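Entry 14. Ran structure prediction on the chain below.
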Amino acid sequence: MHSVLLIEDDTQLAKIVKRILEHKDFNVTICEDGKCALDLIRVKDFDLYLIDINIPYVNGIELVKFIKEQKKDGIIIMITASLEEENFQKAYEYGCDDYIKKPFHATELEVRIKHLLKETIKFDDYEFNFHSGDLFKNGERINLRKKEKRLLHILLKNINYTVTNDKIIDFVWEGESKKSYPLRQLVNELRKKFDKDYIKTVVGVGYRFEV
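Output, structure tokens:
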């Protein structure tokens, strides 16, 4: 069951969204302001964050920034009544995954969430399960070490987009205190698991899983 933190100061809307998502077997927690949300985020991880931009005490944009700095996983969807260009740019700069504009239909919300939280991805003869970290080729499991799973996870979550070295290191090594990280070596080991070179090096920037 996926966990959701809904940060919305419109009590009626929050209740409606909570009811919709719980009907789809999500576990939903509601916060009505940014301070409540910060306190909860510090001690608990969620699979999905639904964040209204204009909330009391700490606005939604700052919450996006905090979540992406403090957490390794978690999808973020912004909820907004008016999409101002400055807010749009900042939200995506800080790591927002998508946005939905008020008023919205329940089906639109469900489709966006389902797309972002999909548990598997298929390409060519391969299938990867984001939840378990298992990789299959034609139904047969390919053995991956823990860090190979995490590397593949972040690359496939951003498929066909470049992921920076720093972002990969933060995700794969999970804050391990080392002076250097053998990222290039890990990438080369992961490349050997496939029969074609999906992982492209973006010199001086990072890597891209290209399908």
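The first strand starts at residue 3 and ends at 7. Will compare against last week's run tomorrow.
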